[in-house]
Specification:
The chain contains 10 helices and 21 strands. With 352 residues, the chain is of the alpha+beta class. The N terminus is likely disordered. Helix content is 21%, strand content 34%. The longest helix is centred in the first third of the chain and has 14 residues. Among the domains are: 87 residues, no CATH class; 103 residues, Immunoglobulin-like, CATH 2.60.40.
C-alpha cells in the first residue's frame, strides 16, 4: 500500500474516533458522559461491545413527567459492582416506578422521595415463582408472616424478621454490614438449609452461606444472590429493557446508545441516548456510502440544560436501493453564529 494512503487512513481514523473511545473499544467497561457503560452482563461476557449505560440524567417518564434520576450516583454510593453486580438493563418503569436492574439488586427511583431498592423477591413471590426459586435456585419460599399483624408497631415487625438471621451468624454479619440494612435488603422473610449452602431470603436480596465449594463459590463465604439476573431469567422485567445496546459513541455533550457502532439499521433508525443541548434542540444528518446526504432534521431532548444530561429518542426514515455503509451525524448548532458544534459521527450499515 502507498505510504500516503496509509497516512490518510490513520489520519481519518484519528478524526472519527477519539483516543478515549479507541481505548474503550478494548475495555469491558468505561466512563461515558453522565455515567458509565458496562458490557459484562450483555449475555456474551462482554463480547461484541454491547451493554448497558447507567447515568445521572433527566428522563421523561409517564406519569411522572420530567425527572432527574441519579442512578449512577446511587450505584456508586451503594457499593457499585461489588455490592450490586453489573448493570443489566436499561432504565424502565416497573412495576410502578423507574428502575435499573443490576445483577444482584435493582435500583428504584420514587419521585419526590429518592432512590430505593426494588422488593424483587416479594414481586417474584406475588407472581408465583416460589416453587422455581426453591427447586432451581435454592431460595426458600417466604415464611407465613401473618403474626406481623398482631405486633404493636413496625419496630417490632423489624425485630421479629431480623431474628431469622440468628440461624446463621455469617449471613447476619453481612446483612448488618451496611448502614441501613432494611433500606438495602428489606426484611428477612425465610431461611433454609440446602446442605451445601444455607440461605436467607429477604425482600430485596437473598444471602447464601456456602459450606462447600460450588462453581465459583468458595466454602465458608457469604454471597448475595443475583436477584436481578433471576428476574431477567424468568421474564419479570419488560423484554425491551434488558436488550443490550451500543457500542456507544460520545463526545463531551452527546452520548449515542442506539444505533451502536457499525450496527445494521433498517428504516426507520431508532436513535436514543443522552445529551446536553442548548434549549434541548439537536440536529441530525444521515449520509450514504457515497457521503451524500439522504436525510436531515432536528430532534429534542426532554429538557435543555448545560449541567444535566437529558434523554432523547427519535427515529429516522430513509430509502436506499442497496445495502451499504452510512454515517449518522448528530450535533448542536451554535446560537452565536449557526455553526455546527460537537459533531458526533456514528458509522452504521444501511439496508433497504
Amino acid at each position: 500500500m502507498n505510504w500516503r494512503v496509509v497516512f490518510l487512513t490513520i489520519l481519518l481514523g484519528s478524526l472519527l474516533t477519539s483516543p478515549i473511545q479507541a481505548s474503550a473499544a478494548t475495555a469491558l467497561d468505561y466512563a461515558v458522559p453522565g455515567g458509565h457503560f458496562y458490557t459484562q452482563a450483555n449475555g456474551a461476557a462482554g463480547q461484541g461491545g454491547t451493554g448497558y449505560a447507567i447515568v445521572d440524567a433527566a428522563e421523561s417518564l409517564s406519569p411522572f413527567g420530567i425527572q432527574t434520576i441519579p442512578f449512577y450516583s446511587a450505584f456508586k454510593k451503594y457499593g457499585g459492582v461489588e455490592s450490586l453486580g453489573f448493570p443489566a438493563s436499561q432504565l424502565v418503569v416497573f412495576p410502578d416506578f423507574p428502575i435499573q436492574v443490576n445483577q444482584k439488586r435493582v435500583l428504584q427511583y420514587q419521585p419526590g422521595r429518592g432512590i430505593f431498592f426494588l422488593n424483587t423477591f416479594d414481586i417474584l413471590h406475588d407472581r408465583g415463582f416460589d416453587a422455581f426459586l426453591d427447586s432451581v435456585r435454592s431460595i426458600p419460599p417466604p415464611f407465613d408472616t401473618t403474626p406481623d399483624g398482631s405486633l404493636p408497631n413496625f419496630a417490632a415487625v423489624i425485630a421479629r424478621h431480623q431474628r431469622f438471621l440468628d440461624a446463621d451468624p455469617a449471613i447476619r454479619a453481612v446483612y448488618f454490614g451496611v448502614p441501613d440494612p432494611v433500606l438495602e435488603f428489606g426484611l428477612p422473610m425465610s431461611t433454609k438449609d440446602y446442605g451445601n449452602v444455607f440461605v436467607v431470603r429477604a425482600q430485596r436480596a437473598s444471602f447464601q452461606h456456602w459450606r462447600a465449594d460450588v462453581g465459583p463459590n468458595r466454602a465458608n463465604t457469604v454471597t448475595i444472590v443475583n436477584g436481578g439476573d433471576i428476574g431477567k431469567e424468568v421474564g419479570l422485567f419488560p423484554a425491551s429493557a434488558v436488550i443490550p445496546v451500543g457500542p456507544p459513541t460520545w463526545n463531551s455533550n452527546i452520548l449515542v446508545l442506539t444505533p451502536g457502532i457499525g450496527q445494521v439499521v433498517p428504516s426507520p433508525i431508532a436513535v436514543s441516548g443522552y445529551a446536553r443541548l442548548f434549549e434541548a434542540a439537536g440536529n441530525w444528518e444521515l449520509r450514504n456510502a457515497g457521503n451524500q446526504v439522504i436525510g436531515s432534521g432536528t430532534f429534542m431532548a426532554v429538557t435543555g440544560t448545560s449541567a444535566t444530561f437529558a434523554r432523547y429518542v427519535f427515529s429516522i426514515p430513509y430509502t436506499i436501493p442497496i445495502r451499504q455503509t452510512g454515517t449518522l451525524a448528530i450535533f448542536d448548532i451554535s446560537p452565536k453564529d449557526g455553526s455546527r458544534q460537537g459533531v458526533l459521527e456514528v458509522p452504521v450499515t444501511l439496508t433497504p
